Amino acid sequence: MTAVCKHEGLNQWVDEMATLCKPDQIRWCDGSKEEYDRMTALMVESGAAIPLKKRPESFLFRSDPTDVARIEGRTYLSTLSEEDAGPTNNWIDPTQLKETMKGLYNSCMRGRTMYVIPFSMGPIGSPLAKIGVQLTESPYVVCNMHIMTRVGDRVIEALGDDGEFIPCLHSVGAPLEPGQKDVPWPCAPIKDKYISHFPEENLIWSYGSGYGGNALLGKKCLSLRIASSMARREGWLAEHMLILRLISPEGRKYHIAGAFPSACGKTNLAMIQPTIPGWKAETLGDDICWMKIRSDGRIHAINPETGFFGVAPGTSSVSNPVANEMLKEKTIFTNCALTDDGDVWWEDMDGPPPAHAIDWKGRDWAPGSDEPAAHPNARFTSHVSQCPSEAPDWEDPEGIPIDIFIFGGRRSSVIPLVYESFNWDHGVFMAASASSEATAAILDKVSPIRRDPFAMSPFCGYNMGDYFQHWFEMGDRLGENAPRIFYVNWFRKGEDGRWLWPGFGENSRVLKWMCERIDGKAGAKQTPVGLMPGEGDLDLEGLSIPSEDLRKLLEVDPQLWQGEIPDIEEYFEQFGSHLTDRMRTQLDAFKERLAKA
Ligand code: OXD
Ligand code: MN
Questions:
Q1: Least CB-packed of 232, 388, 408, 437 within 10 Å?
Q2: Residues 50-88: pLDDT tens digits?
Q3: Candidates 72, 262, 410: which one to mutate for ligand 1, based on the most atoms within 8 Å of Cβ?
């Protein structure tokens, strides 16, 4: 039963947007299981969803081939002054952008139903939570929002008659003429796609795409771009981070928040199964972390989401046994391959490939085919409650106090396996100069290595130079209570192209070192880049890793690092007067340490 909304501001906005988009009808989502089932049944009937015989209550969707990932080139941060968006964001003047988009939105939902999705990012009532309302004509988006956020009547109730909400207008941009047959994945051509943010008004307008971060507006748009901008104004942090709890054999709990660019194994790390006897891990989140300094002086984190929208290819019982289990039922799959016996398949899944499958474009596929069967950015959407390693208190409205921040990226050379910052400011510098190799999660970025500070480059809702300053200031406020900062690179390769580190569950050895550093139990040696495990500091018991590989993994080659400096300098220079002197001091100190090494 849909609650009657008594919020005049919300009702008025819905009316105005409906007048613009002209849907045939409007439905308010109540968030119930019946609603979810009704929507999936509707999509099965229309041919948009394929029920999977092998996985109960699971469905496969195939997107339009042009709508497969986030499109950074069509993502905008529209502030009154271009300078406030900064050089890492695409900018269009808000009046001009709204004019263009209103033209596109005009009648864009003809022939379709507009769904009103009230949703909460974070436990309803938590001091860290925020409410959004998404309008969309995509039933696929409704179902994904059900999994990824808290949807429905309870949100309307929490809003009352004047609560604050973030309006999120979304359309796939494909109206239906009377009698026109629908396609399985309606969307607009790339040139008409706009994923727009107006942080000064806390407003999101997305047009033309039905895929992931472009369309599930609670995720990257609200929880990162808009929230990071709110967080700066209000003195908190909205970050592209997983949240993980490690538990030592003695039962001591350590809370880790880790920022990695897309496709660097963030979901795998969030669901890690430690290989060190006695150590356990619990998952709190795999993508987004909101943090506030609470009355105990520590920074507390919540995962604003309720689900995982993870990359399917590469997920196996080796890379992520927890996800493997989680995906056995009640999951939405997008752009995976379909096997003849009614299951999904993707590259690097367990076991041999099927002899025949239907690929993500709906064509016959067989091993040896030129193209992969699943799109490299094929996804699964599963609810947290299905995750075997889910932390029992994942919905704690107070959040959990963070002990450790980890930053990282995917680099086959130069960057060692792990190092710790000398202090907060140095840690901010490490995170700000982070870099990674290209990924399939983004449609239009092809440069082999990109600077991705804090893994926030595509998600920072204001000038990134000011963002660095915000982090420095958070450190000042946290003082002694500041989490320790580490940098990791699981992806270093030998000259023969082999991965030097086994990764996955074995990453727990690196995490254990971090935990022991906090407790003053593990040693470290000083290097120009930071503090690194010395001989015997990493627990490698039971792991057979050639000592030469280990030496390379922990090698700091000052000359190779010198090669990074011009790129870091050039990157920082683009922020001009928005780059704080504190960052310049860190860069100079780093150069000096390298010169002396
Ligand atoms: C994601 C991304 O989908 O970062 O999480 O691209
Ligand atoms: Mn992400």
A1: 388
A2: 999 999 999 999 999 999 999 999 999 999 999 999 999
A3: 262
Cβ pair 361, 65 in contact under 8 A: yes
Atom of ligand 1 nearest to the CA of 311: 3
Q: How many domains does the chain have?
A: 3
What's the confidence (pLDDT) of residue 447? 52
Beta bridge partners of 49: 61
Ligand 1 atom at shortest distance from the alpha carbon of 69: 6
In a domain, 55, yes or no: no
Please report where in the chains the tokens 């939405």 appear, as a residue. 332
User: CA 250, 256, 261, 262 torsion: positive or negative?
Assistant: positive
Rounded to 5 degrees, what angle do the CA atoms 459, 465, 469 make? 105
168-178 tens-digit pLDDT: 999 999 999 99
Same-domain pairing of 523 and 428: yes
**400 and 365 together in one domain:** no
Q: Do 291 and 327 share a domain, yes or no? A: no
The separation between the first and the last C-alpha atoms of the chain, rounded to the nearest angstrom, is: 68
What pLDDT is recorded for position 84? 98
The residue whose CA has the least distance to atom 1 of ligand 1 is 262
Q: Is 289 a catalytic residue?
A: no
Domain hosting residue 550, numbered range: 238-303+394-596
- Look over the chain and give the mean of its residue pLDDT values, rounded to a whole number: 96
Contact 303, 395 (CB under 8 A): no
What are the two backbone dihedrals, phi and then psi, of residue 203, each rounded to the nearest 5 degrees?
-130, 140
Q: pLDDT band at residue 262, thresholds of 50, 70 and 90?
A: confident
The reported pTM is 0.97
Q: Is the dihedral of CA 424, 425, 428, 434 positive or negative?
A: negative
Closest CA to 489 of 556, 576, 585: 556
Report if residue 268 sits inside a domain.
yes
What string of DSSP letters covers 90-137? Answer: B---HHHHHHHHHHHHTTTTTTSEEEEEEEEESSTT-TT-EEEEEEES
Task: Categorize the per-residue pLDDT at 2 as very low, low, confident or very high, splitting at 50, 70 and 90.
Answer: low
pLDDT digit string, tens, across residues 304-314: 999 999 999 99
Out of 192, 212, 234, a domain closes at 234
Would residue 63 count as lying in a domain?
no
Last residue of a domain, one of 386, 414, 444: 386
Distance (Å, whole) CA 364 – CA 558: 51
Mean pLDDT of 35-48: 97
